[in-house]
């Protein structure tokens, strides 16, 4: 597909997944890392080009660079001096005089390596981020003053370099934390950051396909992957949920735009991982950025049309960067969850999580070939994709419990798998998997409407549809009703059946607050034989539709809901087709019986017939 | 995950994809094949265990077997004598005295290798397959008589062994084909098969998790992957579509059951590929079976919860076979298409297809690392998954054209990429991609109803929904109307808006023939101000629902359809949410204007307001 050899500085799990993507495209990748590094294990074809050494060692990098046409990174802790020198010696790919050999640029790596420089870079480029100050002092009084300049405590004291997975961060919640913080991070270059009070951590992978750094043209030079919600424990990424739960699409678009602008501000091509904070006021700031594929983008392997690894490879190669079309980075599924498998107390404790995953249909296991586990070491991950967030949340639940149990034992000595499993079993009892989320809501204004709904509900019980039946009145609990409508789409309802009689406002009012289809079932009230209810439900103003069924015909209300759900749930459509056929068969049988028995004896038997056209 | 080393006889593309799956599970796989075979290229960790040699050579197999705990195949043309001997020397996996080392059994391979024996085996086990007769004769007269015994010409003359991708098959359409057929297949053991007049070729991958051969317990010892439709050109698999297009679910279930029974009749575990014919009368017969992952199962990598490769590895390992739960082999997407990339006239001609795929968002490229292409050689494949068959058909279309163009040139000498591309450009002009299939149908009984539908249609034109508007009358074209309804679900419609006035039978009759939600829009006819239409539409019998909107309110009919489609199309739901917000904003603006301008001057301006609550 492409004849260039890609040299990757670092051969951990990110390198391994880059190699995996490269194999599918038949692109040659060479690795600079220790012998038997995860990325090397799965790459025999480039064995001759691998170098055993360190990406942090200038001589090794120089030696390695001679074997690769394009150089890139799977880790940013590299020696940028030697990269700068290599770039000035031979800046371009030999057969493509317009394409830089080192992608993204060593300047980008240098800016990102020093987190304080990174923050200043964002500020200069108009990218919102937490205010920060360099810490030149080692005196508590000096740091206290910096804290005051940042608006007072709490603040976060951070090492400027060599910090990852929370190492190098020290939160200063009150004055007594200042001295221990300075001691903990002694001898390192430091900076202090204003405390970001976020309600969610988000991440966006962005692929940059042009060399130039230009925030203004971010729409031309970058494409975003979906927004993902990240959950950290002990400062290490534990889970990602895509799309982020409970984050409106408008805010997701804002997050993608901000991430693209942040990435557009750096030189060179490739995938960048952008960590964001969603603040209490719904504004978004950039936390930090990684100039490479990122843990929070693992989900893209199964969930997106193109993985972050393929995107990175294509973006750094001269002939392929321009082939990445809009849409390529989109989700191919409705929901995805990723769980990191971290090392536990024993070398193989983490395998408990992978083994539990074997039993979960749809759990995609990725083990990195790292050998022995250590507490907190990233040994693998699991991705589950599905039709809904509710589905993937339910499937991942027992695996989170197992991972939590491994973590709970991480400092124990000689912990058997059985002990960890016992913890998991106990936790699962305390915290069982959430029930399947309902796809259909049936609401009524008063419990007197239940009699009308009963035939429909009895039929519903035979269908493969999880549902919720509740009471909410347009007149007695108007606010509750509006709130129910507002939340309906994000709760995952695909239809709402609303029954009401008389003035019958419930279906129409519910429909005013949601984009979910509302089915109105007119109940016969005290007068007019239900005609009042029918008109109150069906004659909605233009703009707000209610799907109205016949007076008191709850069977049809439920069947209509099933038809709606069946448009995206093949099992439900299959049930409905069988039901149509059954009604057909029943009616033909009735006809045959009526013809053969005569009308005189027919009536009694009719009572025995199930459902449908009675 | 598992400490056993899996030895694979053969290291082509199937072996390569097995290795890929093994890496994710951290399972060690060793390969017996020539140096630099595709599977070895991506497997450094087992390099020491690989053997350079042939899976058909007994000595090589014996030498290789010593290095592996479990032996399996990626090709059935292996020496079963040596496998039989190995099995009698050490039948079980060393640390698991109940698990056979050779999976599936050498007996299974031997039965399948000889296609006539395979057919007889099916017949003995009650598996429907084409009638066949061994051909002991080399005389045309003898073959003619066999043809008569099989019910007359046409028949298919087939080599019993070493036949694949159509090589070894010779169709005898009439008497004059007999002599050339015998010449073409001279010196090979032959059999003759009754001609199967099929309307579709299907395939089902089946994973078998127990050692025993028992057709009766097929539900306990096998799990099926989805049914896939295979398209062959020049007897080589060209495309697969999953689920199969236009095949009712009932028939798909029958195909899966038949495939499971066929596989259950063989000894040992692993994945089997079952090729089926769907005959003109909707019955299904088994064509042939492969005791390994299969070309027609490549799609499972992206489309199913578990790939056929992972399923094979897990099924052959003692500790993992029982972890494959029902559901694990299901589709995780709605539709998938797979296109084989075959070699063309020049060593790299096939890369044209892969390069075209780079431009198609969602096209997953797999190149096998086979080096130079030759006409017809399988060099790679492309899989596209999506929300609907229509979507994946449109996306794959230009790639099929490119593949066809490579094939059209396959026997040309020195054909440049430009010449092939020119052919592709021309073909694409003659045969452009099919238009996006409509998700919404709007039907009316007469063109006089168009006036009522117009406001809704004008709004629909602003929505991201492909649609069809047509005329079909319950009374003037009843059969056409019923046919339209019958085909609606398989055409991919997610909603039907039906407008009718007066007796207004159209919506209800349409709803009687489909599981797709039907929205009824009552048109004001000559009398009763539309009340007659409303009642005729809304008061349906129990069992057949019509979603009825207000009299002449086509805007709401379309908005309701959009809400239904929005339950599975996030873009549509996003549009609707913005539209709700816009209506809210407009109304608030009107309120503000009315308050500030006073009611006296208000009316004129109202005309300028767009859509919604006028």
UniProtKB/TrEMBL annotation, chains A, B:
ATP-grasp domain boundaries: 119-317
Claim: Transmembrane helix is one of the keywords in the record: no
Top EC class, one word: lyase
Pathway: Purine metabolism; IMP biosynthesis via de novo pathway; 5-amino-1-(5-phospho-D-ribosyl)imidazole-4-carboxylate from 5-amino-1-(5-phospho-D-ribosyl)imidazole (carboxylase route): step 1/1
GO biological process: 'de novo' IMP biosynthetic process
Keywords linked to the UniProt accession: ATP-binding, Decarboxylase, Lyase, Nucleotide-binding, Purine biosynthesis
GO molecular function list: ATP binding; metal ion binding; phosphoribosylaminoimidazole carboxylase activity
Repeat keyword on record: no
Annotated Pfam families: AIRC, ATP-grasp, PurK_C, RS_preATP-grasp-like
Substrates-to-products reaction catalysed: 5-amino-1-(5-phospho-D-ribosyl)imidazole-4-carboxylate + H(+) = 5-amino-1-(5-phospho-beta-D-ribosyl)imidazole + CO2
Family affiliation: In the C-terminal section; belongs to the AIR carboxylase family. Class I subfamily.
The name this protein goes by in its record: Phosphoribosylaminoimidazole carboxylase
Protein species of origin: Lithohypha guttulata
């Amino acid at each position: 597909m492409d004849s260039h050899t890609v040299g990757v500085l670092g051969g951990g799990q990110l390198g391994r997944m880059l190699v995996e993507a490269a194999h599918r495209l038949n692109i040659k990748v060479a690795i600079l890392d220790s012998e038997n590094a995860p990325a090397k294990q799965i790459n025999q074809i480039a064995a001759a080009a691998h170098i055993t050494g360190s990406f942090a060692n200038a001589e090794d990098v120089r030696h390695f660079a001679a074997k690769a046409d394009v150089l890139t990174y799977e880790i940013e802790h590299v020696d940028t001096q030697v990269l700068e020198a290599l770039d000035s010696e031979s800046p371009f790919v030999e057969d493509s005089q317009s394409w830089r050999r080192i992608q993204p640029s060593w300047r980008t790596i240098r800016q990102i390596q020093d987190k304080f420089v990174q923050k200043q870079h964002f500020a200069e480029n108009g990218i919102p981020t937490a205010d920060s100050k360099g810490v030149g002092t080692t005196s508590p009084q000096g740091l206290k003053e910096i804290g005051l300049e940042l608006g007072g405590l709490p603040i976060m004291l951070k090492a400027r370099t060599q910090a990852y997975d929370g190492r190098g961060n020290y939160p200063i919640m009150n004055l007594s934390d200042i001295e221990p913080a300075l001691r903990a991070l002694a001898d390192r270059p430091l900076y202090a950051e204003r405390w970001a009070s976020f309600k969610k951590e988000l991440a966006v992978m962005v692929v940059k396909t042009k060399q130039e750094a230009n925030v203004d043209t971010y729409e031309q030079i970058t494409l975003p992957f979906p927004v993902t919600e990240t959950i950290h424990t002990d400062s290490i990424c534990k889970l990602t949920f895509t799309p982020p739960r409970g984050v409106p699409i408008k805010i997701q678009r804002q997050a993608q735009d901000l991430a693209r602008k942040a990435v557009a501000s750096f030189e060179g091509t490739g995938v960048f991982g952008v960590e964001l904070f969603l603040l209490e006021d719904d504004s978004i700031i950039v936390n930090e950025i990684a100039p490479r594929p990122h843990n929070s983008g693992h989900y893209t392997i199964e969930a997106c049309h193109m993985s972050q690894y393929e995107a990175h490879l294509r973006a750094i190669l001269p002939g392929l960067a321009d082939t990445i079309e809009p849409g390529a980075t989109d989700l191919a599924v409705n929901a995805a969850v990723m769980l990191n498998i971290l090392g536990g107390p024993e070398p193989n404790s983490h395998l408990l999580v992978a083994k539990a995953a074997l039993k979960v249909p749809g759990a995609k296991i990725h083990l990195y070939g790292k050998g022995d586990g250590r507490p907190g070491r990233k040994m693998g991950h699991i991705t589950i994709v599905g039709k809904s967030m509710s589905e993937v949340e339910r499937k991942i639940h027992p695996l989170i419990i197992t991972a939590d149990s491994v973590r709970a034992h991480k400092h124990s000595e000689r912990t058997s798998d059985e002990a960890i499993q016992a913890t998991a079993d106990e936790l699962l009892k305390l915290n069982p998997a959430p029930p399947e989320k309902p796809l259909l809501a049936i609401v009524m204004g008063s419990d007197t409407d239940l009699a009308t709904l009963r035939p429909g509900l009895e039929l519903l019980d035979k269908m493969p549809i999880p549902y919720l039946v509740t009471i909410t009145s347009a007149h007695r609990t108007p606010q509750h009703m509006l709130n129910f409508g507002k939340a309906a789409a994000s709760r995952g309802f695909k239809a709402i059946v609303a029954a009401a009689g008389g003035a019958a406002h419930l279906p129409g009012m519910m429909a005013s607050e949601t984009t979910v289809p509302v089915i109105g079932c007119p109940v016969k009230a005290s007068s007019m034989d239900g005609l009042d209810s029918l008109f109150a439900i069906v004659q909605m103003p233009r703009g707000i539709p209610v799907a109205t069924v016949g007076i008191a015909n709850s069977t049809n209300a439920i069947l209509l809901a099933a038809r709606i759900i069946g448009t995206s749930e093949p099992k439900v459509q299959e049930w409905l087709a069988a039901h149509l056929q059954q009604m057909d068969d029943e009616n033909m049988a009735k006809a045959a019986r009526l013809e053969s028995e005569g009308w005189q004896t027919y009536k009694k038997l009719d009572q025995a017939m199930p459902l449908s056209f009675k």
